[in-house]
């Protein structure tokens, strides 16, 4: 059961059905070469939670993105990769 798909009317029964268990997918945004999306880890984590909830009922919360890998930041040209300008002096 995905939390964002529950209605306010069926939320309480979903919590009871899941025995008050929830799963929180933790992921980060990072570059995976040129052929995979930046959210690859999010997709994997979300699917792992879905598979686990199929075995043992749980409410799956939306992804929590806890970090961003710096090489995945967009440059000023809209491409992924390393920074195009040096870091400012402290």
Q: What would a concise description of this structure say?
A:
By secondary structure, the chain is an alpha/beta fold. The chain has helices at 11-17, 40-55, and strands at 22-23, 26-29, 59-60, 64-68.
Key structural traits:
two-stranded parallel sheet, 26% helix, 4 strands
Give your account of this protein's structure.
The protein has about 90 residues and is α/β, with parallel strands linked by helices. The chain has one domain (about 5-70). Helix content is about 25%, strand content about 15%. The chain has two helices and four strands, in the order αββαββ. It has helices spanning about 10-15, 40-55; strands at about 20-25, 25-30, 60, 65-70. The strands form two sheets. The chain has a two-stranded parallel ribbon with strand order 1-3. It has a two-stranded parallel sheet with strand order 2-4. The longest helix has 16 residues, at about 40-55. It is elongated, with a radius of gyration of 18 Å. The N and C termini lie far apart (about 50 Å).
């Amino acid at each position: 059961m995905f939390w964002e798909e529950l209605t306010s009317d069926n939320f309480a029964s979903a919590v009871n059905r899941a025995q008050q268990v929830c799963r929180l997918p933790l992921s980060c945004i990072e570059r995976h070469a040129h052929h995979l999306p930046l959210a690859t880890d999010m997709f994997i984590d979300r699917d792992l939670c879905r598979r686990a909830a199929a075995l043992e009922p749980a409410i799956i919360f939306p992804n929590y993105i806890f970090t961003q890998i710096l090489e995945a930041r967009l440059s000023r040209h809209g491409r992924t990769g390393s920074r195009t300008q040096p870091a400012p002096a402290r």
